[in-house]
Amino acid sequence: MRLLVVNWQDRENPQAGGAEIHLHEIFGRLAQRGHHVTLLCGGWPGCEARTVLDGIHVHRVGTRYTFPLHARRAWATHYRTGYDLIVEDINKVPLFTPRWGGPPVVGIIPHLFGGTAFQELPAPVAAIVWMAERPIPWVYRRTPFQVISRSTADDLAARGVPREAIEVIYCGIDAVGYTPAPAARAERPVFAYLGRLKKYKRVDLIIRAFASLPADAATLEIAGAGDHRPALEQLVASLDLTGRVRFLGRISEEEKRALLRRAWCLMLTSPKEGWGITNLEAAASGTPVIASDSPGIRESVRHGETGFLVRHGDVPALAAEMQRLVADRGLVERLGVAARTFAETFTWDRTADETEAHLKRVLERGH
User: Fold this and answer.
1) Could you give the CA distance from residue 265 to residue 209 in angstroms, rounded to a whole number?
2) In the predicted model, what is the mean pLDDT of residues 7-36?
3) Residue 53 φ/ψ, nearest 5 degrees
4) Mean pLDDT over residues 44-58, rounded?
5) pLDDT-derived band of residue 349, with 50, 70 and 90 as boundaries?
6) In which band, very low, low, confident or very high, does the pLDDT at 119 lie, cut at 50, 70 and 90?
7) Number of domains in the chain
8) Which of the two residues, 189 and 148, has the higher pLDDT score?
9) Please, what's the largest Cα pairwise distance for the chain?
């Protein structure tokens, strides 16, 4: 197959996150299997306009803010012919590729923002994001979709997309790179957050819950970068937690694995995620998770088996589960063993297999 993948970013972009990892893990494997894959995406100041990543031919146009203005022109100039499918990864504002007049389109959706956009962005910008998602059911009315969780499938169906047009294909995990190392577990309890520091991620809930633990009970390590870090640092200072909370900044893959192995628990308190891939990375590392019982997230944590789910925004409940782990290292280890077993059922090869099969079915129906 000759596939033109359209996404706002590639994995080398400084703003890249889970959506870009997901894209490269799948389509890098399809490129290795002999499919021709081109990625049309946005760039950033000083980046190369063209490169090859994971066997994918990457063409960068515009920036994070101007990509929509450049993407269709680049398609019309360079890629209008010669492709079997356009695969649009809709993880920000949709580009409405079915209106480009090209080959059939397949939409990949990690999750839709909906009302959560108003928790992160200024109201006028959030309104634009919210309004941009509204036309999806009719602009993409003949488009088959791939989503990464039942929660996202339910969201799409509730918006008017036929359920039979939605294929749920779960994410994978690198169960070879992420492995348990019991000897690496910290002697003293360590709670960890790993991800972007954005307002909508609600890392403040973790900090507030952590503040209720006894002063000498544990430490909290926060890894990641984002524009909400100053506000979180201010919160830490206001709660007199400066000596107990560490901000690690952006960390390498090696440092990430070390963090997940030494932590007693990973925390994730977003109101909505496509899946929560860091939950599975922690699970593969033999580390339990405490998370909000939110769409997407609830599918990557088995309550009472690989970690605990609490009602989103319930700080006392978060604190209670944290205290539960602090008081029982044996529970941490038992949950970690079950988490590793759970994580081993998810592989990127399986995700790539299911994606490849779905794209081929779309082509067969189209022909």
Assistant:
1) 14
2) 93
3) -125, 125
4) 96
5) very high
6) low
7) 2
8) 189
9) 66
**CATH, residue 114:** 3.40.50.2000
Structure-block tokens of residue 251: 């960390």
Q: How confident is the model at residue 151 (pLDDT cuts 50, 70, 90)?
A: confident
Question: Are the beta carbons of 146 and 109 closer than 8 angstroms?
Answer: yes
The alpha carbon of residue 336 and the mean position of all alpha carbons in its chain are separated, in whole angstroms, by 22
For residue 299, the 8-state DSSP code is G
Output the six-digit token pair for 104.
């059939």
Q: Please give the average per-residue pLDDT across 94-122, as a whole number.
A: 81
Question: In the block, which residue shows the tokens 């081929």?
Answer: 360
Q: How confident is the model at residue 367 (pLDDT cuts 50, 70, 90)?
A: very low
Cα 81 from Cα 86, distance rounded (Å) = 11
206 burial via Cβ count (<10 Å: 0-12, 13-18, 19+): buried
Residues 55 and 151 in one domain: yes
Helix (H) / strand (E) element for 5: namely strand 2-6
Q: Which residues contact 230 (CB under 8 A, 6 or more apart)?
A: none
CA 264/CA 243 separation, integer angstroms: 19
**Residue 9: domain span:** 2-172+347-366
